Amino acid sequence: TASGAIIFDNEAADSFEGQVATNDLLQTALLSVDADGNFQQEGAGGEEKLRTGEWSSARGETAAITSTSSITYTFDGLQDITEIHVYGGWQDGGRARIDVAIDYREAEGEDWIELIPHTTFDPTDEGHTWGRMSILPENGGFLATDVGQMRFTFPSQKAGHAGYNEIDVIPEPASLALMGLGGLLLVRRRRASA
Predict the structure, then answer these.
(1) How far is residue 89's CA from residue 157's CA, in Å, rounded to a whole number?
(2) Whole-angstrom Cα distance, residue 43 to residue 171?
(3) What's the predicted TM-score (pTM) here?
(4) Which among 106, 87, 93, 101 has a CA at the least distance from the CA of 146?
């Protein structure tokens, strides 16, 4: 379910190195990925580069996404989402515009619920080739709760395809702490059995 009003906090910069999440849901609770479209234009690395937990301007470490492409992420269990950050850009700025729509649903087969409609942010308008589109709940809390799947659609990319560096889907802090604790217990169990 959606939480209410959403705000956008967009930023243009020369780099976002060290600013992306290294433990968001795309790294810790991803069950499957269904990518439809082309994500490897001009030597780009592909969809998997969007969920590494690292920002890079190197072409092979980004995804170059063509118009009308989409990605559906299926999470391991239902998740409560507090923030989403989409990082985009290109070395020369010619393919730098972030152009995305985001939907979610509890389970496959259910109707999609629109989180944000087709929305754009072009960092070159502010003199930079890299940008971050941050989607946040207006009054704190959650963007959406009980999310089993999230779909990112890239409707109309600048010059036919645009560069994207990372997507962060941030869960509620308690879920994040539990995922970290679960990983710690797994490491301790492995050490104990070794």
Answers:
(1) 12
(2) 32
(3) 0.88
(4) 106
Q: Which residue has the tokens 């990605």?
A: 71
Query: How far is Cα 182 from Cα 189, in angstroms, rounded to an integer?
Result: 11
CA atoms within 13 A on the CB side of 35: 15
* Residue 169 bridge partners (DSSP): 84
Identify whether the C-beta of residue 154 lies closer than 8 Å to the C-beta of residue 68.
Answer: yes
Quick count: other Cβ atoms within 10 Å of Cβ 167?
Answer: 27
Model pLDDT for residues 49-77, shown as the tens digit of each residue? 999 999 999 989 999 999 999 999 999 99
Other Cβ atoms less than 10 A from the Cβ of 114: the count is: 11
How many other CB atoms are there within 10 angstroms of residue 80's CB atom? 18
Joined together, the tokens standing for residue 174 give: 């308690």
Would you say 38 and 118 are in contact if contact means Cβ atoms under 8 Å apart? no
Rounded to a whole number, what is the distance in angstroms from the first to the last CA of the chain? 44
